[in-house]
Amino acid sequence: MTDRNSNWRHLALALLGLALITIAQPMQAQTVTPTASAAKEEQLLSTMKQIDGRISIPDQKASVLMQPAGQEWRKVHSTTMFWVGAVSIIGMLLALTLFYSIRGRIMIDSGPSGRTILRFNGFERFVHWLTASCFIVLALSGLNVSFGKYLLLPLLGAEAFSAMSQLAKYAHNFLAFPFIIGLVFMFLVWVKDNIPEGGDLDWLKAGGGLMSKGHHPPAKKFNAGQKVIFWVVIGGGTVLSITGLMLLFPFSGTVIADLQLGQTIHGILSGLIVAVMMAHIYIGSVGMEGALDAMNSGEVDLNWAREHHSLWVEEVEAQEREVHDKAKSVAAE
Amino acid sequence: MRIFLLSLVVAGTLAGIGASVLDSSYQKQAYQAYSTVGARVGDAGNNLVGKDWPAAKH
Description:
The complex is a heterodimer of chains A (333) and B (58). By secondary structure, chain A is mainly alpha-helical. Chain A is built from 13 helices and four strands. Among the domains of chain A are: 72 residues; 135 residues, Fumarate Reductase Cytochrome B subunit, CATH 1.20.950. In chain A, helix 4 packs across helix 7 and helix 12 crosses helix 13. Chain B is mainly α and 58 residues long. In chain B, 59% of the residues lie in helices and 0% in strands. Chain B is elongated, with a radius of gyration of 18 Å. The interface between A and B is medium-sized, with 25 and 22 residues.
C-alpha cells in the first residue's frame, strides 16, 4: 500500500512537472523586448534628413543629434581630398625634378646684356607679393589640416603640434582678408594683359620653347603659360575666397550641407592650385635665369625680355620712340 | 626687397584689422554662445571658470 501511494505521488509530481514545463514554454516565447517596436536608426534617417531634438541653449545648431551626410563628408575629407592633394603636390614635385634634370636651368641664350627694361612697377610688385606671401601661409596652414597629423605630429609631438596648428589656423583665417584684397587688385592691374589671343595658341604649340635651347616663341607682356597661371589664380582664388568666407562665417545664410560642399571644394581645389603654383614658383626663381628680377627689382635684362617677351619689348620700344619723337617735335617748334 | 617687406607688413596689418573687427563684432564668448542668462551661475569673470578658460586651468 505504501509502495502504491509512493508510485502515485511520483506520477503526480511528474505530471505537475510536465504541466509546468508546458506552461513555461509559451511564457518564455512571450518575453517582452522593449526596443523591438522602437524605430531603428535607418528608419529615422530614411524619413528625416537629420535627427534633432529641442534644446534651451542659445546655439540652436546644437539640437542636431545626427546628420548622415556628415559621414559622407568625412569620407571625402579623409580619402578623396587627402589623395587629390597628395598626388597633385607630389606629382608636381616629381615633374619639376624631372624637368630640371633634363633641361637644367633655362639660361639667357644670348647672355645678359647689362641693359635693363622696366617690367613691373612698384605697385604691381606690391600687389604680387601681398597676394603671394598670403598664399604661401594659407597653403602651408591649409596643408597642415590635411597632412599635418601624419607628417608633423610624429616630428613635433602633440603639445608643439597643437600649438603650431592653433597659430596656423588663426593665420589661415585672418590672412584670408589681405589675400582677397590682393586678388582683386591683381585682377584690376593685369587683366588687360591676360586676355587670351590667337598668338597664345602658337606659344602653346611650341611648348613655350621650354624644352629647346635657342627657340623662343613670340609673346607679349604675358605669354600663354603666364595667362594660364593668371586665370588659375583669379578663378581658383575667387572660388577659394567664396568657399573660405562660407567657412569663416558658418551658418550665415548657409546650412550644414552648404558648408560641407564648400569645404570639399575648398580642400580639393586648393590642393590643385598649390601644385600649379609650385610650377610658377619654380620657373620664376631657380628654373629660369633672370626671371626673379621681374618681381625683385622690377627691371629685367633686355636680352631676357627679347627672348621671352619679344612682342612686349617691341611695344615698349615703339612707345618710347613715339614719346621721344613727340618731345623732339615739340622742341623743334 | 623694400616692396616685398612692405607687402608683408601690409598683409599682417590687414590680417590684424580683420581679426580685431571679427573678435569685437562677430565672435562670442563660449558662455554667451552656449548658455542663456538663466543658466549662468554668475557673470563671466565672477563665476568659477571666468572669461579666460585656458588661464583658469593653471
